[in-house]
Structure prediction request, 124 residues.
Amino acid sequence: MNWKIFRSVLPLVALVAFAYYTRSLKPDYSKKEPILITDSDELIWRFQMNEGTELINQIVQFEGKITGFDSLLIIMDHRLICAPDSSGHIKVDIGDSITLKGRCLGYDDLLDELRLDHVVQVMN
Prediction:
């Protein structure tokens, strides 16, 4: 009788352990400290001058003006394309100046755009 109970509980224990393990693999970018605090123009300038390669996959904090929205993306100063973090809700309007932080994904030379994800709003 004990073996039947053990056999039925074992898959549940394995499922809980797997869920805990996969949840711990995802880093919480909103709590990480940025390696650079700047404004959006200087951040774009770094990538234009090929000095931004060390910022790829790193957290940066930047200030700028919201110039547009595209479905789930926030466009800052026409050149920073920001994908907000799923847990963070950014309530802004076009023309607002705000401070954000997020992970740099890459720079597109042709479009002169910098892509960021896991972007959250920084409260001053």
